[in-house]
Design goal:
Elements (H helix, E strand, L loop, with lengths): L1 E6 L19 H16 L6 E4 L3 H14 L6 E3 L2 H4 L2 H9 L7 E6 L3 H10 L11 E6 L12 E7 L8
Parallel strand pairs: 1-4, 2-3, 2-4
Antiparallel strand pairs: 1-5, 5-6
Length: 165
């Protein structure tokens, strides 16, 4: 089983009066989603299920990735706890996933994503930049078995890894 954790792409601050949850992606964020779509396509990664924060910027990031991941609409779920909760809330969501889903992608926010990665596989990046991806191979056969240190980092990639320097 696999879990891929993705931080939303760069959001816009053009309207400082806009509530945080509805901030859209900015131009740089849209470019990063496109860049990471190419990476995901080149790696031939697919997803059985997508869990996404209720925030607009996370939703737009997840939709962009879902096109490449070949996610069925019924397997795309918005989970408000990813925005409002903490890593324990997210683990509760993951533990309740149907075991028919073997490759789950989660789109959310910092600092929760870094802490989630640290809990599940012991990997704590110095920084989890926008549109960064942490892929974890889980040593479990059922989602209900998801516990601390049950996974191993497969890769941690960021848009800067693929930008021309």
């Amino acid at each position: 089983m696999f879990l891929t954790i993705v931080r939303h792409a760069k959001s816009s601050w053009d309207d400082p009066n806009l509530p945080d949850i509805v901030r859209p992606l900015n131009h740089r964020g849209l470019l990063a989603v496109g860049s990471m779509q190419e990476v995901v396509a080149a790696m031939n990664l697919k997803a059985d299920k997508v869990l996404c924060s209720a925030a607009t910027r996370a939703l737009h990031t997840a939709v962009g990735f879902s096109e490449i991941l070949s996610v069925r609409p019924a397997a795309f779920e918005i989970a408000p706890q990813i925005y409002y909760g903490d890593e324990e809330d997210i683990i509760d969501i993951l533990q309740a996933i149907d075991n028919n889903f073997r490759d789950v992608w989660l789109f959310g926010h910092e600092p929760i994503l870094s802490r989630l990665g640290q809990v599940i596989c012991g990997f704590l990046p110095e920084k989890f930049p926008t549109c960064g991806m942490l892929r974890i191979k889980l040593a479990i056969s059922n989602w209900s078995e998801l516990l601390p240190n049950c996974g191993e980092k497969v890769f941690f990639l960021t848009p800067k890894d693929f930008s021309s320097k």
